[in-house]
Amino acid sequence: MSLPEVVAALISDAGTMLDVAGSSAVGSAVAGYLRKRRKIARDILLEELRAGAVDPAFVAHEDEVIGVLFHYRRAAEEGAARVNLRLLAKAIVGEYRNGRLVADKFMYFANMLAELSQDEIIVIGTMYKHAHGAASKSSGDEDLHTGAWGATWKELVASGMNGKDVLAAANRALRSGLLIAMSTVSMVSFEVSSLLSEIGTTIDFQDAIRREQGHMDNKMS
């Protein structure tokens, strides 16, 4: 069985979240929407599987992986944005390659990653880069102008992102547990959490943004 056939069998039109009469106009619209969402999810997952050089038959007899793919399909059906589906696909590939792909754990990842806005993903990815990059340094008393948060702020504002939007995105990201707030003498700063340090080894947040920006550019051209 080829890789597309394996994934298509698990993220298919069989079984929907809504039991809608297919003959009705509403039912047809819902069915069309779900087919479109599944196709998007399928295409993104296939891209990430190929990029990760994962064995085409990796799901053949593994219940945990099958459970993970059903969670992934559900996120797609519930309207997760392309970039969020890209993060989930990266999590599937990365966790599988590291031998840590478990359905229950992935369900937690899916709920967390599917709710992130694009601004939050940008801030989180940039924070991870500066916290774990080759030139990263931790002062132990980081504020707006030092450490990973200071470097993130400066980079994103220099790139054209509004400073208030950077701060707002960092605050919203606290609910995910990927960033944590740190009180300093004069203000609140942010640091990478241990959870982000863990999943950042398997999920490239910045690559997900780049890939989806490229998709939008191609669509508009």
Overview of the molecule:
The protein is mainly alpha-helical and 221 residues long. It is built from 10 helices and 2 strands. The chain folds into 2 domains: 113 residues, no CATH class; 82 residues, Winged helix-like DNA-binding domain superfamily/Winged helix DNA-binding domain (Arc Repressor Mutant, subunit A, Orthogonal Bundle), CATH 1.10.10. Strands 1-2 form a two-stranded antiparallel ribbon. A hairpin with a 4-residue loop joins β1 and β2. The longest helix has 27 residues.
Summarize, please.
Helix content is 62%, strand content 5%. The chain has 221 residues and is mostly helical. The two termini are 35 Å apart.
Give the helix/strand layout.
Layout: H1 3-10, H2 25-51, H3 63-77, H4 82-97, H5 103-114, H6 118-132, H7 147-158, H8 163-173, E1 179-183, E2 188-192, H9 194-199, H10 205-220
Antiparallel strand pairs: 1-2
Round the Cα radius of gyration to an integer and report it. 19 Å
Order of helices and strands: HHHHHHHHEEHH
Biggest sheet, spatial arrangement of strands = 1-2
Largest sheet: 2 strands, antiparallel
Q: Which segments are poorly predicted (pLDDT under 50) over 5 or more consecutive residues? A: 13-22, 138-144
What's the number of extended β-strand segments? 2
Number of domains: 2
**Total helical segments:** 10
Share of residues in strands: under 5%
Could you give the distance between the termini?
A: 35 Å
Quote the average pLDDT.
80
Dominant shape:
globular
Structural class designation: mainly alpha
Proportion in helices: 55-70%
